[in-house]
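Memo to structure team: turn this sequence into structure tokens by end of day. - J.P.
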Amino acid sequence: MAEIKAVTDATFEETVLKSERPVVVDFWAVWCGPCKMVAPEMEKLAAKYDGQVDVVKVDVDANPGLSRAFNIMSIPTIAFFKPGAQPQGVVGFRPLEQLEQQFGLAEFAKPPVVEPQA
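Reply from structure team:
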């Protein structure tokens, strides 16, 4: 199972902004009901794109600097950071399929393993 790392004001730049891979960031809070609905979708995304796209989460209450820096006004906010491109974001619950479409994640999917024929 792919790990979803928690990043902080102190580790965000190194983990997300300087990453060589695309990163999906879940801005959430412990008390947020819709954030709890998003968590399983983030786990699916992390598993599906393991090794291709990193998935991290930011507790907005514990990391107010990041909330200010990225103008996070509502949670959950899911943001996509692709190296060399402006970040994209969506607010509210989105199932895996919508996140894949919104962020164009198909280009990062692992190619299917083709078994050699005997």
